[in-house]
Amino acid sequence: MTDTPGEVLTLEELATYLKVSETTAYALVRSGEVPGRKVGREWRFLKARVTQWLMQAGTEDEMNSTGLVQRDEHGGEFKQENGQEFVALWLPMTREEKAAQLEKAEREGVSVSELVAGYLREWARA
């Protein structure tokens, strides 16, 4: 007897399944939030794992108390933790670029926010 892995989704199918844009789906994938795997140059997702991930989100009250990421009425992402609200900003950078910015901030003793703002200004000019 062999195990069947379940339905496999492409990135486009994932976006349709989640009822979000492909850009939003890709951002969720890049952040590591949605469980998936890169096969060659393409992303693949087990529908059962994605469904399980969705079910773990919980109620709005649970998300407020645990600091889970939520979406506002405009599609923006935020979380509430310890009475503070944190707004998510998707940056056009890879994990390697992010790591380099963090290392640079630590090495130069400057604010990561300042470096990221400079990075975004340069990115916008390009």
What this model shows, in words?
- This protein is α+β, with helices and mostly antiparallel strands.
- Strand 2 and strand 3 form a beta hairpin.
- The model has no long low-confidence stretch (mean pLDDT 78).
- Helix 1 packs across helix 2.
- The strands form 2 sheets. Strands 1-3-2 form a 3-stranded antiparallel sheet.
- The radius of gyration is 18 Å and the shape is globular.
- It starts with 7 loop residues before the first strand and ends with a helix.
- Helix content is 48%, strand content 17%.
- It has 6 helices and 6 strands, in the order βααββααβββαα.
- The chain has 3 domains: 56 residues, Arc Repressor Mutant, subunit A (Orthogonal Bundle); 31 residues, no CATH class; 31 residues, no CATH class.
Brief characterization of the structure:
A hairpin with a 2-residue loop joins strand 5 and strand 6.
Detail the topology: elements first, then pairings.
Layout: E1 8-9, H1 11-18, H2 22-30, E2 37-39, E3 42-46, H3 47-55, H4 60-66, E4 70-71, E5 77-81, E6 84-87, H5 95-108, H6 112-125
Antiparallel strand pairs: 1-3, 2-3, 4-5, 5-6
Features:
three-stranded antiparallel beta sheet, single chain, Arc Repressor Mutant, subunit A, 3 domains, alpha+beta, 126 residues, 6 strands
